[in-house]
Amino acid sequence: MSPSVSRGALNLQSLQIKDCQSMEEVITEEEQQGQGIMTLFPSLKVLKLCRLPQLEHFFLTEHALEFPLLREVEIDDCPEMNMFVQHGIFMSIASLESVNNDDEVKAVDLNKVMFNSKVCLVPLAI
């Protein structure tokens, strides 16, 4: 989907994408407009990405991303994924409570937490 669609999904609280053999990214790249923080899925609380063998990243952007209400993130069996946000920065928020079922995680950058720590459950491509 496009970034504008994700910004317009005002009431979406849970997003689960699974078993899609050809998905390479969740949010499609669009022309970069301005700088600053981009808010996606303003009401999203739970994000789960499971069994997506071609998924390389969630979003390719130069912007910093913010998910203001996100509490839980789970990424499982996405072997090609080695960055959540490619080129940009995932801005963690105070509401983030769990990453891959680890309740002790308080992340500043989801890229680092998901792919450079003990909570990584995703087989990484080398």
Automatic annotation (TrEMBL):
InterPro entries: At4g27190-like_LRR, LRR_dom_sf, Plant_NBS-LRR. SUPFAM superfamilies: RNI-like. It holds the Pfam family LRR_RPS2. The keyword Disulfide bond does not apply. Residues 11-98 form the Disease resistance protein At4g27190-like leucine-rich repeats domain. The keyword Magnesium does not apply. Keywords: Plant defense. PANTHER family: NB-ARC DOMAIN-CONTAINING PROTEIN-RELATED (PTHR33463), RPP4C3 (PTHR33463:SF198). This is Leucine-rich repeat. It comes from Solanum tuberosum (Potato).
